[in-house]
Structures are given as structure tokens and as C-alpha cells.
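Lab notebook, bench 4. Still working through the backlog of constructs that have no structural model yet. Next entry is a single chain of 255 residues. Request: give me the C-alpha cells for it.
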Amino acid sequence: MTDRHDTRVSLNVYLLDAVDFSSWLALQRRLVFEVSGDRSQGALVLCEHPPLISVGRHGSREQVHFDHRELSLRGWPIRWVNRGGGALLHLRGQLAIYPIFPLDRLGLDLRAYLHDLQTTLRETAADFGAHATLDGKRPGVQSSGRLLAHVGVAVRDWVSYFGAAFNINPGLEHFRRVDCDGFGQMTSLERERRLAVNPDLVRHRLIERFCEQFGLPTPEIFHSHPALSDGTEYRPPAKTPAWHELLMARRVDDK
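Model written out:
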């Protein structure tokens, strides 16, 4: 492991809108390949995903309390992924944070990386007036006893991928039906502030915090990536199931 102050890593930041999860996984593989081949660079992707449930290495279907019919009507798939942690519900208003960093070049082992990642999230929350804490026994950032930011990472050849999901202003009611790493209910930055927040300001402050915490220079910022130029960015479905259709589906499956 090198001294993290002996070398510098340039950073490309991708500020994207909503990206289809399958398209994101393909882009992530490409970025991991690129950083593995040139460890003088890193990437940070900030985006949202359409509604879905991802399940990490420590998760199971038992953590998801939506039945198959309701998930089908909502158009919410379940995706099994190679990250730490269990089940996580992704919704609009939740910021997906993906650092693709050469940890060896930065002089970080997995424990130090998790500490720096969670500290970055905690300090960003504090910048917007939310008192956030770390659990100490499991990854994640809490506020008022609820999970504010889920952390689930993976590492390949000392390159980090996956990362965190930071709730800015999603609707919170559906999170009650997905067990997220045993934390119980989830919260959001807006709920803890009791004030509205501009998501763009959160993104930009988060970038600043990443650079401060990881000792990175001023990044290059992009608002697209060539791998997503084929229309793979998410577009909402033409028809969303009406609330009464979803209610009927739950009643049928409860019988």
C-alpha cells in the first residue's frame, strides 16, 4: 500500500440524471476496467435510478415485503448485485453515489476507504443542517435513529465500485416495506432539516467533500458519458398503475 500523499489521482465526475440500472451496471464495468488500467485516474458518478430494489451479498428475498404481483404492477424489478449489504429500495429523490477509485494508489485499505466514504456522507449531511452519525458496527449513516445513507461497496483489483445511496427527498412510505441492513426505517435530508433542499447544491457540496476527504485535486465535471449516448438513460413509463390496481393486487395476494 502506497502513502496516499505520494501520488495524485485525477478525478472525473459524472453528474447524470436518472440512469437505467442495467445501463449503469454496464457503465460501471467500463469505468472499473479503465481505472484498473490507468490508476492515475478515478471516477465519481452521481445519478438517480428508476424505482427498483437491489439486493447485495448479505441480502435475501425475505427482506423485501412487496409481493411479486405488486412489484410487477409497479414495474419495480429486483436486481441481485455484487456489493456489500442487503436489500435497498431505489427511488427518485435518492442520490446514487458511485466512487470508482484506485484504492492502492490512494493508500487506502477497505476499512480506511469505508471510513472516508462514510465521513464524506456524514459531513455533507451536516453541511445542510442534519445531525448524522456513524453506527460503528455496520456501514451506513444515520440521523435521528434512522438510516439516511445506505453504504454498500465492492472492490476488484483494489478498485472500488458501487458505493452509497443518499436520501435527499424521496417519498419515505415505501421504505417501510424493505428491510435495509437491519436499520429499520429510513429518513431523508429534507425530513431531518424540516426544510426543502436543492439537490444540485447537495451534489456539488458532496463533490467538494470527496475531494477534501480523499485528497483529490479539482475534478473535471461531465454531464453525460459516451456509453449512455444511445438513449439508455431512464425515461418514465407511459402508464403507471393506478393506486386502486396496486391495492387490489395486494388484497388478492393476501388471500
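Notes after review: The radius of gyration is 18 Å. The chain has seven helices and eleven strands. Flag for follow-up if needed.
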